[in-house]
Amino acid sequence: MTHEGEGVGRVAGYTLFVRGALPGDRVRAEVVSIGKSFGRARLAELLSPSADRISASCEIYDACGGCQLQHWSYEAQLRWKRQLVADNLARIGKLPVAGLAASGEPEGRPAIIVHPAIGMEEPWRYRNKAQIPIGYDRAGGLVGGFFEQGTHDIVDMDACLIQQEQNEETSRIVKGIARSLGYSAYDRETGRGLLRHVVVRHAEATGERMVVLVTNGRDLPRADELVALIRDGVPGVRSICQNVNVERSPVIFGDETRVLWGEDVIYDDIGDIRFAISARSFFQVNPVQTERLYSSAVAYAALTGEETVIDAYCGIGTITLFLARHARRVYGVEIVPEAIADARRNAALNGIRNAEFEVGDAGVVMPRWQAAGVSPDVIVVDPPRKGCDPVLLETMLQLRPERIVYVSCNPSTLARDLRVLEDGGYRTVEVQPVDMFPHTVHVECLILMVRNEM
């Protein structure tokens, strides 16, 4: 299985990636493209199924690109995600992984333990946020859903089994309101049209909902009617916002957000910490697994209450505030000013006074902290999919904390970064995959590194 969820088959020694095929399947495939080292094919006929193949629960699964693994048993998904992480560490990072003979375990150095992935008891209805692109169907009607696999064609969606039902309901109501008000859909080819995305959030702890309309320009016709209809139709709505994005790019949000009605935030909890979440805040979409992930991060940090901790890529302070309950002092740095404003608000909201936040590039801010006498015992990083900035990795090596806790959403860039840190004097001890996104190819990982003794 590839990292994109395609089955890997071989014909006369030539490798084919087959969309829809699973390990253990025997299939007839039609070749779509041929390259020097591999080709791509589509599943034409299933001759004999894998023992782990099941029927997908979603009616539009074959068209929608949101999920890739619904036709695979959940137990098999978890095994594969654990193996994906282990293989990347060995292949890209050239790191010794327990149980992988090919990874080559050097003498005198313990192999890295990759634990079984932590799954969900009920791996459905977990997403607390939906970002719904808006477009037209072939009849010219306004639709909203998800992009068809490999295209920019929008599959209309009124039901999604990985979305919380509240988001499903909200998006259905808001799409209907947009149609009734005669709003035009944004055309990605021409750059014309009003409504680009509808973004909805649901806070499980409080029941509050947020609606954000992303528009191609500031002018929003019939805004008062829009607000009245959303307030009347959407239960629990607390915040209605407009975000303006006039750029010809796939990025969802623009720089300007204004509140049309209500508050600028909704409130949700992770564990016993409450967070204010604004329209553009990064907040993990799976609340059940997020609490498990962050609790494990605290355990890996091995805090006694006397430590100084730096959280790079701190966002709105989610991990930072978890750590603050167990450390003497925590410092969070994030390049997005709005996120730091949210982080400070969240610290105050929870009465946490031992957390300090600063806007800026971590590779610049952290040396300044060091010059001011900050000596971290633990550094936590939770970078985007592209991994850590090389300057940040070098800064971490200069600061030389006893422990590094790395939270990753991309096993390949994780392996690359771990190699750099290992070469700089650290040892990867263990890796805990967490299934934040069941039925998709994505996997989150928590990694513990310790400083080698000199």
TrEMBL record:
Transmembrane segments: none
Keywords in alphabetical order: 4Fe-4S, Iron, Iron-sulfur, Metal-binding, Methyltransferase, S-adenosyl-L-methionine, Transferase
InterPro entries: Methyltransf_25 (IPR041698), MeTrfase_TrmA_AS (IPR030390), MeTrfase_TrmA_CS (IPR030391), NA-bd_OB-fold (IPR012340), SAM-dependent_MTases_sf (IPR029063), TRAM_dom (IPR002792), U5_MeTrfase_fam (IPR010280)
TRAM domain: residues covered: 1-45
Alphabetical list of PROSITE patterns matching this protein: SAM_MT_RNA_M5U (PS51687), TRAM (PS50926), TRMA_1 (PS01230), TRMA_2 (PS01231)
One example of a Gene Ontology biological process annotation: rRNA base methylation
Keyword Chaperone found: no
Pfam families: Methyltransf_25, TRAM, tRNA_U5-meth_tr
Residues binding S-adenosyl-L-methionine: Q284, Y313, E334, D382
Positions annotated as active site in the UniProt record: C409
Enzyme nomenclature, EC number: 2.1.1.190
Keyword Chaperone: no
One MF annotation (Gene Ontology) recorded for this entry: rRNA (uridine-C5-)-methyltransferase activity
Enzyme class at the top of the EC tree: transferase
NCBIfam families per the UniProt record, alphabetical: rumA (TIGR00479)
PANTHER family hit by this protein: RNA M5U METHYLTRANSFERASE, TRNA (URACIL(54)-C(5))-METHYLTRANSFERASE
Membership in a protein family: Belongs to the class I-like SAM-binding methyltransferase superfamily. RNA M5U methyltransferase family.
Name of the molecule in the record: 23S rRNA (Uracil(1939)-C(5))-methyltransferase RlmD
